[in-house]
User: Which sequence fits this backbone?
């Protein structure tokens, strides 16, 4: 498997894992399994942090993908 293909697959796997984790944490707050003094603010914080992590991971792996394609890997 080419490195560029692995970079794209890694991007998809990491993004999906972060999305699933974020949805699971939001569900925990909404159902009351996790006690939060202000559920709205907790959900906002969770989505902001996960969104930032997804953006960083996506940018790094897209740059890797482009560099691998330029090199011919």
Assistant:
């Amino acid at each position: 498997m080419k490195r560029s293909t692995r970079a794209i697959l890694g991007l998809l796997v990491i993004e999906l894992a972060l999305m699933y984790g974020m949805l699971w944490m939001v569900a925990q707050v909404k159902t009351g399994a996790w006690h939060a003094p202000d559920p709205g603010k907790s959900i906002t914080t969770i989505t902001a942090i996960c969104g930032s992590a997804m953006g960083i991971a996506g940018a790094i792996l897209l740059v890797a993908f482009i560099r691998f394609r330029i090199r011919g890997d």
Summary: The first helix runs from residue 3 to 31. The CA atoms of residues 1 and 34 lie 42 Å apart. Helices lie at 3-31, 39-71. The chain is about 85% helix and 0% strand.
